[in-house]
Write a structure and sequence with these properties.
The structure is a single chain. The protein has 4 helices and 12 strands. By secondary structure, the protein is an alpha+beta fold. The protein has a single domain, classed as Umud Fragment, subunit A (Ribbon), CATH 2.10.109.10. Strands 1, 2, 3, 4, 9, 10, 11 and 12 form an 8-stranded antiparallel β-sheet that branches. Strands 7-6-5-8 form a 4-stranded antiparallel β-sheet, with no helix packed on it. It is globular, with a radius of gyration of 25 Å. The protein starts with a helix and ends in a 17-residue tail after the last strand.
């Protein structure tokens, strides 16, 4: 009985080297397709190449970019977004993606006066800007389906104040997590950008 058991076992077809190689190729191919799909549709990593977003983002910070949220919701003021160069930037031979903070929404009027940003004549209380600006700018009205972006390091940022607006279809995604460097690991802007204490309270 024992001999018959071995004989039956040995009669099962054994995978050939060619089949093993083929299965391995299929596994690698499926993994690549999955990784490419995840990278293309869901999320990707980016690194910060300049100091235009100081002090929020430092040079060489590594970020996780959420590419999915904006498929169901619109960008919001304060979001840090990654976007492809606009037509005007391409004319200036800018080819790399950029990362800035979203300041002006479609239809809003944005102005810098007395060193502060105003949206529709209301002061935008920003806790993240590196320093108070030393000039006047605007007013400008943000076109439909477009956004005005600025760097947090306002005096050292080449942003929408110089080249205009970011069309919605140029936005790649929103920066949500910093995964490098280790001492700065975590969510970006974990606390509200515009704290409740800065809003007008009842009776004021």
């Amino acid at each position: 009985m024992h001999h018959q058991h071995n004989q039956d076992f040995n009669n099962h077809p054994q995978p050939s080297r060619n089949n093993l190689w083929l299965e391995g190729c299929k596994t690698v191919a499926l993994s690549l397709v999955f990784a490419f799909g995840f990278h293309t549709l869901v999320a990707e990593s980016r690194y910060v190449a300049s100091g235009s977003m100081l002090p929020t983002l430092e040079v060489n910070d590594r970020l996780l970019i959420d590419k999915l949220s904006y498929r169901w919701s619109n960008p919001e003021r304060g979001d840090i977004i990654v976007f492809s160069p606009t037509d005007k930037l391409k004319q200036q031979n800018v080819r790399d993606t950029l990362i800035k903070r979203l300041i002006g929404l479609p239809g809003e009027t944005v102005e810098i006066k007395e060193g502060r940003v105003y949206i529709n004549n209301r002061l935008l209380r920003e806790k993240y800007a590196a320093e108070k600006l030393r000039y006047e700018w605007g007013p400008v009205t943000v076109p439909a389906n477009s956004y005005l972006v600025m760097g947090d390091n306002r005096d050292n940022s080449y942003d929408g104040r110089y080249w205009g607006f970011v069309p919605h279809d140029h936005i790649i995604g929103k920066a949500v997590i910093r995964f490098w460097s280790p001492e700065r690991l975590g969510q970006i802007d974990p606390s509200p950008l515009y704290p409740a204490s800065e809003q007008t309270s009842p009776g004021q």
